[in-house]
Amino acid sequence: MTKWTAADVPDQHGRTVVVTGANSGLGAEVTRALAEAGAHVILACRDPDRARAVAEPIGRDTEVRRLDLADLSSVRAFADGLDGEVDALINNAGVMAVPQGSTADGFERHIGTNHLGPYALTGLLINRVRDRVVTVYSGLHVLGRISDDLNWERRRYQRWLAYAQSKLANVLFAHELQRRLAAAGRRTVSVAAHPGISATEGQRRDTSFQGKILAGGPAQSPAMGALPILYAATAPGIVGGTCIGPDGFLQRHGHPTTVGSSRTSRDGTLATRLWERSELLTGVRYSIEPF
Questions:
Q1: What is the per-residue pLDDT across 3-36, written as a single tens digit (0 to 9) for each?
Q2: Helix axes 25-36, 227-234, angle to 10 degrees
Q3: Which of 135, 140, 217, 230 is the most buried (most CB within 10 A)?
Q4: How confident is the model over 192-227, as pLDDT tens digits?
Q5: Helix or strand or coil: residue 13?
Q6: Smallest Cα–Cα separation from 227: which of 202, 201, 203, 259?
Q7: What is the C-alpha to C-alpha distance for residues 165 and 158, in angstroms, rounded to an integer?
């Protein structure tokens, strides 16, 4: 693969893309690049004012809608209020290494915001997504374990391991979604992408020693970190079930390329169990229509 950049994003005129968490960092960079290429971008954000601050300077075909992935009622309201079909859904929003707390529905904040919210959103929109679903994960998924105690109610809370669990859930979800799309005879594909080590707002907030060790050195810019997400969302002919990440050392920095993920993230039995648990917790059951 050549050194793909934002300049290589194909013409997006006539395409509609939903980007969650588009008000800052990676999501804002993805939004700008897609809009520059001609897409109608829906910025799905918890704080509409911050999202409008990103959208207005773009001066192109953008739309701001409120979405709080830590509140399933907000997820349902967003899905109900979205008109027509979209070409791509980019599940980018998330929290990283936050103190212990609960979402509006009582879930641990990482698993609730990073996995259960996107699981529900995707399920409610799946028959309106024509081309692809992109789920943003992290290289730290390799530290994750899907515990029976998904919400950290019976074990000592460790914020980085809670984050890693949610990011492993993202990859398991992306792979399982692709299996279900293919089984339904659907042309829509599911792709996972991670930004490597990027200077996002979440990383700037975390000044702990553990955070610095896990970050693994200097971070690349959000513009570079956004490239794997943009590639996953726009590159023609991408294969469902693929993971995209940086091509540099240990996938920490660089330009987008196809990458591997942990053995655990490819465990089909574990993915099915997580899917069934997610269905039970959110009340969202997928009914994928072929087309």
A1: 999 999 999 999 999 999 999 999 999 999 999 9
A2: 50
A3: 135
A4: 999 999 986 554 445 454 554 555 567 899 999 999
A5: coil
A6: 259
A7: 11
CA within 13 Å, CB half, 31? 33
- Dihedral sign from CA coordinates of 6, 9, 14, 16: negative
pLDDT at 203: 47
- Tell which residue, 94, 154, 189, 76, has the closest CA to residue 66: 76
Which residue matches tokens 């515990």? 147
DSSP structural state of residue 274:
H
Residues with active-site annotation: 163
Whole-angstrom Cα distance, residue 220 to residue 254? 8
Residue 257: both structure tokens together: 């390329």
Helix (H) or strand (E) holding 95: none
CATH for the stretch 8-282: 3.40.50.720
Tell me the average pLDDT across 53-67: 93
pTM over 0.90: yes
Q: Look-up: residue for tokens 């641990």?
A: 108
Average pLDDT, the chain: 94
Q: Rounded distance, CA 141 to CA 71, Å? A: 24
**Averaged pLDDT, 99-121:** 98
**Domain boundaries, given as residue ranges, for the chain:** 8-282
Q: Is the pLDDT of residue 128 over 90?
A: yes
Instruction: Provide the residue count of the chain.
Output: 291
Beta bridge partners of 108: 102
Residue that is written with structure tokens 């996995």 in the block: 115
CA distance 116 to 75: 10
